[in-house]
Design brief:
The complex is a heterodimer of chains A (about 525) and B (about 1050).
Chain A lengths: L1 H19 L12 E2 L15 H17 L3 H7 L5 E2 L12 H7 L7 H21 L7 H22 L1 E4 L11 E4 H18 L16 H13 L1 H5 L6 H16 L20 E8 L1 H5 L19 E2 L1 H5 L19 E2 L15 E4 L1 E2 L17 E2 L16 E3 L10 E7 H13 L7 H11 L10 H12 L5 H7 L27 H6 L10
Helix pairs in contact in A: 2-5, 2-6, 3-5, 5-6, 6-7, 7-8, 8-10, 10-13, 13-14, 13-15
Chain B lengths: L1 H16 L5 E10 L2 E2 L4 E4 L5 E3 L5 E7 L3 E5 L6 E4 L8 E2 L4 H5 L1 E4 L2 E4 L7 E5 L22 E5 L8 E5 L12 E4 L2 E2 L31 E7 L2 H4 L10 E6 L10 E13 L8 H10 L4 H4 L7 H5 L3 E13 L3 E13 L6 E15 L4 E16 L12 H7 L19 H6 L1 E19 L4 E20 L15 E23 L3 E26 L4 H18 L6 E4 L5 E6 L5 E6 L5 E26 L3 E12 L8 E12 L10 E15 L11 E4 L15 E5 L8 E14 L4 E13 L1 E6 L8 E6 L2 E17 L3 E17 L4 E7 L7 E7 L6 E5 L15 E7 L4 E11 L2 E11 L2 E3 L1 H6 L2 H5 L26 E3 L2 E12 L10 E15 L34 E11 L1
Parallel strand pairs in B: 1-8, 14-17
Antiparallel strand pairs in B: 1-2, 1-5, 3-4, 3-6, 6-7, 9-10, 11-16, 12-13, 14-15, 16-17, 18-19, 18-52, 19-20, 20-21, 21-22, 22-23, 23-24, 24-25, 25-26, 26-30, 27-28, 27-30, 28-29, 30-31, 31-32, 32-33, 33-36, 34-35, 36-37, 37-40, 38-39, 40-41, 41-46, 42-43, 44-45, 46-47, 47-50, 48-49, 50-51, 51-52
Classes of the chains: A mainly alpha (about 525), B mainly beta (about 1050).
């Protein structure tokens, strides 16, 4: 009896467990906000917190500008401003820098892939903030539209086609692809909407200039209009576009933005009238990517000995050809190299601008390279490979004296706007005299005034003012010089305009069959 | 046992001749030394006439009067009694260790080797590898055909790669499911991986380190789907069932067992580096100024960072078998020091295994619990170190004239090994409790119910710090100090109920099982980063950072995800997700760390399963098994939340057939097919759209950016497990009473719906998201095992065994090309060596074909291409020889792997002319290689080498001291074991059996790496002296 009772009870327990213990297998909201409707088929219901998402958009911007790889390398190393020579084993990096400079990148190039992913991601995240279901404020929508326009411009400029994904389209949807002229219209529409609703942040208002303002949106619109001939395939921008460039720059100036003297002071954390948009990106990479290991900031942080400029680019500045010490007849923007007499604890022997010739430490002692040779930077290279530690002129715009890793990088600067206006006028817009505008800037930079300014002189001037500011490739495309050949570009690529657009990354084509590889790859 | 088998054959013959006996009834009782044995089998020899004993051990059977009764019970010697007219026969069975060997623990039950239908291999304690063992997998390394076990480095407690029949998945985690005493463990790490505080990351320690190897009784490896389908969505990579020792074999009065060992380890191999004068001459040869590179000292840096270490291991156990149950309790202490400075693993374990039977043995309760504490310390060794390398890279490349003074600054961003060793520290402690309570109730002799509750919890904290005194880091650490504290808390719960029905029929038997299981995997923890410390004391830094985080958390009210304060901030930001997304500011809390960030995670996965298995045996010749499991997992999308995993197997014991001669003692054909799944590595909530704050970080100046929220996953309702269809044929054979025995297996496995964190079609909220890739990983191969008892005599015995497996791997139907296998080192940023591509094996190398140097010393060949080689071994094998003479015994074990290539990233990064040209030390052949000092060392076949090797993995010589058994010491055994005594290979690095594993975030395209040797932790050669006593 007793045994039977136990048996019955145990059986009951077993049955109960089978019945009760079934669970619905839902995950709980302990770690992250779960949009539960997306677990039943829906995809998007608005972002959780538009303010935070806008923060995230600008954080994304920060990381895009932080290092010397990806879009920065595409704009600068695939141009006549920079090369990254392979120095023995250093900076071989599997050829990733060499193929950029020789114009022999392929659809597997990692920087190109990353730029594609990064900027497209910004576009999508911005679209989410813009979507009405996110209930973003008018200004938040305007900030997001600015970011979306910036991202779309980058993809259009680099790849000539832009995939578009709606926020409701899940991973099973292959995004449709817009042509450059279609994308161009989208960028202008976003910028017009952004200009309307963004705040009219005034110059010198540092704390707010790391978000988009009317001036920043106008700046970007001026840039896009000035390059409209490239995107629309018409060769030159039409006069309406050129005239609008002039009026946009004039509008920027009404918010207090203006040229400012003291070139290397611009690249400090302090407020200046030129900065239109900055991000809290660290400036460290721009400092150290070129500096030699033995040239060191005060805290002992040394360089990585990579980026150098081309001899021809260095020669485009006024001054003595092979040294850049104080009194070598150089204009301000070429900077100066401390020597035994003026190297000190502040500059620690590191040049402002172009670093050429013998380098010194903070006590004025001549430096040696790691194997023990005098550390003398030379203009010429034996080739893209087979370099020693000393070849190549190095470029320092953000000086470690102002903080090795200061989080303050300029994205848009009034001098660029000023030159855009001058160029628009040179190309036929009304509103002033291009040569006078260029000479206004040159005067401020201690450079000899130019007699007349033609298109090649305009491109050269932009190079001298804006070197290392991530715009060179776009400029060269507009002036038609990108494929004209510079030192160490593969001779077979000279005149090959197919490299004006980067290859669509093979992974991207794999993930979206709507993308068609650009011609020539 | 073998002799009995032979006898039974003779008797079968005899009975066939005299098959006309009269019937009579026999009854009696079967017991062991502790009391009645319920469920023992009583069979009339040579017939299928049989019965089982009841709960009191009683039986009744009607047999012919010339009959012989065969009484058997798993784990006991089978006894035969001739009836000879007796009507009452009582038998006491003796426990038989050899018989235990034959028992194979399979999922939710046991079987015997001869009755198994699937491909199952079991290794028991006496066959385990000896010496210093930090994790259970090493116990059976190389013992089983088709099982490749690789410790990824020589570091104590390093992760282990366990591959059963090849590599199934394209992403990380191809390890099998581990089941410890019936509890399927979570596949995740239980301690944080090595944090990047300036030198890169390293993979987590092996989560199985918590098990004391000397507590393990047996390890079963379920290799094919017919065996693993009972584990459903977690069975695709095979299942490893670990059973711990119980008190079953203990003496009735209780007894102690004590074992102790002392081990001496030295690095088994080292690099031949230039000595001081050779180095200076080398610098001059490549155009440097030797005098400028002479810092006066004469140091062997490799020797400086490595050491000969002594390790110890002590175990005390008590076991008792007291009739109504048995108990075993153990205490273990081990401390293992690695051969690189600052590496150690300390393990303290306690374990209790208690079984008690109630109600006339109808109810049996079992309690198993283990508590462990692991303290580990890692030197600054990393698999993702940049151009400077980690402590090993720094030691290989260090200028031998540098002084060992810790404050010495080599300049140029180089790292002094002395400085690096002195001012970095990575230590973790992990407490784990694994408990298992089960109740088994026999409703009837046929029907048994079992209820199991399992609880597995662990708390781990890792402290990684580099002090302000560090020189050469470029992340702001010099002068400030940087650190991280990472907590991982795991809480897994299991509830499981099974019903088993066993019935013997006239000519057949049935064993049916149905079950339900629910598992809940909870994971939480926090990641704390710190910068700017008041102290340079490494221990104090960790404490200060933890205190700082605790102080800040003490000031935060309500729920939050993260917080942070930068070095120059005037308040602390607090980011909250609930009840709504907000960023609050709270006043600064005064702490000893100037910048602190904290980030919290907390999530739980659930798995609910229903399963059934049917074993049917006809005439003891034809064995059928069918299993099915339905798994519901909270990791999958709504379209595919439940998966169904069926399998079937058939075995034919041909040796039981008349047409097979007597000399064939075993001949069994096995056929199996099944579908299993894999969901490891997928992680929590990847099918649903989730939002959280990005990870905070501390910049090089101590600044902290406030992260915004972002979508971390893209809704993918169709997400599902990855599925492996496998089928195989096996043949087990044995001749001459199994004196020669072996097996051969052929299999094919197709894994589809591959889960991969794949590049999203842009624009997308994040660059990668989990998808089921439309491609197939094919593994097919052959396994062969052979054992032969060479000598069988009273004093001298010798046997040899041998296993070899061939596996072919290929990715099929995949149109993409995804780079993998990051190569690191000077000038090698963004370099990779492998591409995942269709029509090729996983881990296929994609390199420049190196064609020598041109007259300028520049390498020829600059186009990266597939070179037709891969990192997966085609052949793996093992050979062992065991011998005993009187009281002496010898066991040796050789293991080998063949047909794979290793990328010598260490050589690529450090031993090229560019290194010596920049005053970094190299190996002597660099000076004569013809390479120019300014040549680039891009990835190429120059650094790809054949990895084939044979290793004398283990050799043990033992002596059992002859004792009367009357004294207080019942038995005493002394042994000496050598591990890794020699290695035969053409590989020029330290050891070809290596796989440098960075942290998961450092994997290129989330793809795992294999075959890459980047400053692998040197594997030790170890001599262990052991003592084992019972009293």
């Amino acid at each position: 009896m007793k045994r039977r009772q136990i048996k019955f009870n145990v059986l009951l327990v077993f049955s109960a467990i089978f019945i009760i213990s079934c669970t619905n297998l839902e995950i709980e909201e302990t770690d992250s906000i779960i949009d539960q409707t997306t677990s039943t088929g829906s995809i998007f219901n608005g972002v959780e917190d538009p303010a935070s998402s806008v923060n995230n958009l600008f954080d994304g911007l920060r990381s895009r500008y932080e290092n010397q790889e990806n879009f920065y390398a595409m704009q600068e190393v695939a141009s006549d401003e920079f090369l990254v020579p392979t120095r023995g084993t250093d900076w071989g990096d599997n050829g990733i820098w060499r193929t950029l400079h020789t114009h022999n990148w392929d659809p597997g190039h990692l920087f190109i892939l990353r730029a594609w992913n990064d900027w497209n991601q910004s576009i999508f995240l911005a679209s989410e903030v813009i979507d009405p279901r996110s209930n973003s404020s008018a200004e938040q929508v305007a900030q997001a539209k600015f970011i979306r326009a910036l991202g779309t411009w980058v993809i259009m400029d680099a790849f000539g086609q832009v995939p578009i994904r709606g926020v409701d389209e899940g991973p099973e949807i292959n995004p449709a692809v817009s042509t450059a002229p279609e994308a161009y219209a989208l960028v202008l529409a976003d910028l017009d909407a952004a200009i309307a609703d963004l705040p009219a942040t005034q110059a010198l208002n540092q704390d707010n200039l790391n978000r988009a303002s009317k001036a920043a949106a106008r700046f970007l619109k001026a840039r896009v209009l000035l390059n409209s001939g490239v995107y629309l395939g018409t060769g030159d921008p039409d006069s309406a576009a050129l005239n609008e460039v002039v009026s946009l720059v004039d509008d920027i100036a009404t918010d207090g933005f203006a040229l400012q003297a003291g070139y290397f002071d611009l690249f400090k954390q302090d407020a200046d009238t030129e900065t239109i948009l900055w991000t809290p990106s660290s400036v460290g990479n721009n400092i150290f990517n070129g500096l030699h290991y033995n040239t060191q900031a005060l805290d002992g942080t040394g360089g990585w000995n990579g980026f150098s400029t081309l001899a021809e680019f260095y020669d485009s500045f006024e001054g003595a050809p092979n040294t850049n010490y104080v009194g070598d007849g150089q204009e301000e923007r070429r900077g100066w190299v401390p020597d035994a007499s003026n190297a000190d604890e502040i500059n620690t022997g590191i040049a402002y601008g172009f670093f050429i010739g013998q380098a010194y430490d903070k006590d004025g002692n001549a430096l040696k390279d790691r194997p023990g040779n005098p550390l003398v930077f030379t203009k010429e290279f034996p080739g893209l490979v087979g370099n020693n530690e000393r070849t190549g002129v190095r470029v320092i715009k953000y000086h470690p004296a102002n903080g090795n890793f200061t989080s303050h990088k300029i994205l848009f600067r009034y001098a660029d706007a000023h030159l855009m206006k001058a160029e628009a006028i040179l190309r036929g817009a009304s509103g002033g005299d291009a040569t006078a505008l260029v000479n206004e800037l040159r005067g401020l930079r201690d450079a000899t005034p130019l007699g007349t300014v033609d298109l090649p002189a305009m491109l050269a001037e932009r190079g001298r003012e804006l070197y290392g500011e991530m715009i060179r490739r776009t400029d060269m495309l507009r002036f038609g010089t990108f494929a004209s050949g510079y030192e160490f570009m593969d001779p077979d690529r000279v005149g090959d305009d197919s490299r004006n657009l980067f290859s669509i990354p093979s992974n991207a084509i794999l993930s979206n069959p709507n993308l068609v590889q650009n011609p020539g790859y | 046992m073998k002799i009995t088998l032979l006898k039974s054959f003779l008797l079968v013959g005899a009975l066939l001749c005299f098959g006309f006996a009269q019937a009579q009834e026999v009854s009696g009782n079967v017991s062991d030394v502790n009391g009645p044995l319920p469920g023992a089998s009583v069979v009339e020899k040579g017939t299928t006439n049989g019965t089982q004993t009841d709960f009191d051990g009683n039986y009744t059977i009607t047999v012919g009067d010339n009959a012989t009764l065969v009484i058997s019970y798993i784990g006991y010697s089978t006894t035969e009694v001739a009836v000879n007219g007796q009507t009452s026969i009582n038998v006491t069975l003796a426990e038989d260790a050899q018989a235990l060997d034959e028992v194979v623990i399979i999922g939710y039950g046991t079987t015997t080797v001869k009755d198994a239908t699937g491909s199952v291999a079991a290794v028991t304690a006496e066959d385990f590898n000896g010496g210093v063992i930090s994790s259970p997998e090493q116990l059976i390394q190389g013992k089983t055909a088709g099982v490749q076990i690789t410790q990824t480095s020589g570091e104590p407690g390093a992760g282990v790669e366990f591959r059963i029949r090849g590599t199934n998945s394209v992403r990380s985690n191809n390890n099998p499911l581990f089941v410890v005493d019936g509890i399927p463990l979570a596949g995740d790490d239980t301690s944080a991986q090595g944090q990047d505080i300036g030198l890169g990351t390293s993979a987590s320690k092996n989560p199985l380190n918590f098990l004391n190897p000397s507590d393990i009784q047996s390890i079963s490896v379920l290799k094919d789907a017919s065996a693993t389908a009972i584990y459903g969505s977690r069975g695709a990579n095979g299942v490893v069932i670990i059973t711990t020792k119980s008190g079953k074999g203990g003496a009735s009065g209780g007894g102690f067992e004590f074992s102790s060992s002392l081990s001496i380890s030295t690095p088994a191999n080292d690099y031949d580096l230039l000595k001081r004068d050779e180095f200076l001459a080398g610098v001059a040869q490549f155009g440097g100024v030797a005098a400028d590179q002479d810092f006066g000292a004469n140091v062997d840096w490799q020797d400086f960072v490595t050491r000969t270490s002594a390790s110890q291991n002590q175990n005390l156990s008590y076991s008792q078998n007291y009739g109504k149950g048995n108990i075993r309790a153990t205490f273990g202490y081990g401390k293992q020091f690695g051969v690189v400075e600052k590496s150690e693993l300390e393990r303290i374990t306690g374990r209790l295994n208690w079984t008690h039977r109630f109600f006339d043995d109808k109810l049996s309760l079992n309690l198993t619990g283990s508590i462990s504490r692991i303290n580990d310390a890692s030197p600054p060794v990393s698999a993702s170190a940049g151009f400077n390398g980690d402590i090993l890279g720094a030691a290989y490349s260090a200028n031998p004239t540098w002084p060992t003074f810790v404050g010495f600054d080599p300049g140029g961003g180089l790292l002094s090994p002395a400085n690096l060793l002195a001012f970095t520290q990575s230590e973790a402690n992990t407490d784990r409790f694994l408990g298992n309570f089960s109740a088994t109730y026999n409703f009837t002799p046929e029907l048994t119910g079992k209820l199991t509750f399992g609880y597995d919890t662990s708390q781990s904290t890792r402290y990684s710090v580099a002090s302000a005194d560090i020189i050469g880091f470029d992340n702001g650490t010099p002068g400030n100090g940087r650190g991280a504290v990472n907590d991982i808390d795991v809480e897994n719960k299991l509830m499981e109920a099974t019903l088993t029905y066993k019935k013997e029929f006239d000519n057949s038997s049935l064993d049916a099982l149905v079950g339900y299981s629910f598992q809940d995997f909870g994971r939480s923890g926090r990641n704390i980063g710190g910068f700017g410390f008041n102290t340079s004391n490494l221990d104090q830094m960790g404490t200060d950072l933890e205190d700082a985080a605790n102080s800040i958390e003490g000031e935060i009210t309500g729920r939050y995800q993260q917080y942070g304060v930068g070095a120059n901030d005037t308040d602390i930001f607090v980011n909250r997700l609930f009840p709504e997304v907000t960023t609050d500011r709270i006043p600064i809390v005064l702490t000893d760390v100037s910048a602190v960030t904290g980030n919290i995670f907390d999530f739980t996965d659930e798995l609910q399963s229903y399963f059934a298995r049917l074993n049917y045996s006809l005439a003891d010749k034809y064995l059928f098994t069918a299993t099915v499991r339905a798994d519901g997992s909270s990791r999958f999308g709504p379209d595919n939340q439940y998966g169904y995993f069926p399998s079937g197997a058939f075995a034919w014991k041909m040796n039981e057939e008349d047409f097979i001669g007597d000399s064939v003692s075993t001949l069994k054909l096995r056929l199996g097919v099944g579908i299993t799944g894999n969901q490891e590595g997928l992680g929590y909530g990847n099918f649903v759209r989730r939002t959280r704050f990005g990870d905070p970080s501390i910049g090089n100046g101590g600044e902290v950016n406030v992260p915004g929220t972002s979508t971390v996953t893209f809704a993918n309702n169709a997400l599902k497990w990855e599925e492996t269809l496998s089928y195989g044929v096996g043949l087990d054979f044995g001749f001459n009473s199994d004196r020669l025995s072996g097996s051969i297996d052929v299999y094919r496995k197709e894994t589809s719906d591959l889960l991969l964190n794949i590049e999203a079609a842009q624009p997308s909220p994040q660059p990668f998201f989990f998808q089921n890739l439309d491609a197939i990983v094919l593994n097919q191969g052959v396994e062969f095992a052979l054992a032969y008892d060479l000598v069988q005599s009273e004093d001298f015995n010798m046997d040899v065994s041998f296993n070899v497996a061939y596996n072919e791997n290929e990715l099929q139907d995949f149109g993409g090309a995804i780079p993998a296998g990051t190569i690191r080192g000077q000038g090698l940023s963004l370099a990779f060596s492998q591409i995942l591509s269709g029509g090729r094996p996983l881990f296929s190398y994609f390199l420049r074909e190196f064609e020598g140097f041109d007259s300028n010393g520049q390498p020829i060949g600059d186009v990266q291409t597939f070179v037709g080689k891969d990192a997966l071994p085609d052949y793996t094998g093992g050979f062992s020889l065991n011998a005993s003479y009187k009281n002496w015994d010898l066991a040796t074990y050789l293991a080998g792997q063949f047909g794979f290539y290793v990328y010598n990233n260490t050589k690529n990064a450090f031993f090229t002319a560019g290194s010596i040209a920049n005053a970094r030390n190299v190996t002597p052949e660099v000076l004569t290689s013809g390479e120019a000092g300014n040549a680039a060392a891009d990835v190429s076949t120059r650094f790809l080498e054949k990895g084939d090797f044979v290793r004398l993995q283990n050799a043990t010589l033992g002596y059992t001291v002859p004792l009367s058994g009357d004294g207080s010491i019942k038995s005493l055994r002394l042994s000496v074991t050598g591990q890794n005594l020699f290695l035969i290979t053409d590989y020029s690095g330290l050891d070809p059996e290596v796989s440098s594993q960075p942290g998961s975030n450092d994997l290129l395209n989330s793809l795992p790496t294999a075959g890459i040797d980047y400053t692998g932790f040197p594997r030790p050669r170890t001599i262990t002296f052991g003592l084992n006593a019972t009293f």
